[in-house]
Amino acid sequence: MYLLRIASTSFASIIVLFLLTKIMGNKQISQFNMFDYINSITIGSIAAEMATDEVPDFFDPLIAMVVYTVVVVVIAYLTNKSLAMRRFFTGKSLILYDNGTLYRQNFAKSKLDINEFLMECRLAGYFDLSQIQTAIIEENGKISFLPKAGDRPATPTDLNLSPKQDKVLYSLILDGEILYKNLSAIGKDENWLKKQLSLNKTKNVEEIFLAVCDEYDNFTVYKANNDDNKNDIFQ
């Protein structure tokens, strides 16, 4: 009976966490600000307690999780409406380095030392500070770099080129299943798809792991291979 209770409350906590996350919105871990981080670990801790601890009432931790979620949603609304509230809850970006000058006070505010900053520079591909025009620490703790004009990668515009604009690829077959909505979205039908498969010497849709098409009707097929590739190319 005890194990059944643990299983049921764990399942319930997963469902509740999923629903609350959908309400709060999806964010990558790297996009979390301090307030998001505190709330995420708190809600996660409450969910774990609800699943495993001998709590007198199942609804006690559930109510706590809902309260935290409501607070997150309300603060998200306020930060969207007020710049002052946004800066209070999420912080603001700070210039760490600009045009050869390191700003010590902003390093202190960011709780960042010079060695960590230089490591972030190297990770971004800058081993020489003279290649950087400006470095800014963002609200989520990530550092953005503006390279000097002479050190940034050349673009087609720099070379007076006018390449075609790339567009998103539509997945038409995924794991052996035809995605009819995507097929319709590009103005094609199943007969066109079968013709493309025939040109790629493929008859059985189940053999295809992935098939994509771009706006220029360039059709690419990736067949499924059930063999185990044991070659370790990283050794």
Automatic annotation (TrEMBL):
Q: How does it sit in the membrane?
A: Multi-pass membrane protein
Q: What's the protein called, per UniProt?
A: DUF421 domain-containing protein
Q: Which residues form the YetF C-terminal domain?
A: 81-212
Transmembrane intervals:
6-23, 58-78
Major site of localization recorded for this protein? membrane
UniProt cross-references to InterPro entries, sorted A to Z: DUF421, UPF0702_alpha/beta_dom_sf, YetF_N
Residue stretches making up the YetF-like N-terminal transmembrane domain:
12-78
Q: Which Pfam families match?
A: DUF421, YetF_N
The Gene Ontology CC terms held by the record are: plasma membrane
Keyword Membrane among record annotations:
yes
Q: Where in the cell?
A: Cell membrane
According to its UniProt entry, this protein's organism is Qingrenia yutianensis
Q: Which family does it belong to?
A: Belongs to the UPF0702 family.
Q: Give the source's domain of life in one word.
A: Bacteria
Q: Which PANTHER family match?
A: UPF0702 TRANSMEMBRANE PROTEIN YCAP
Keyword Transmembrane found: yes
Listed A to Z, the keywords are:
Cell membrane, Membrane, Transmembrane, Transmembrane helix
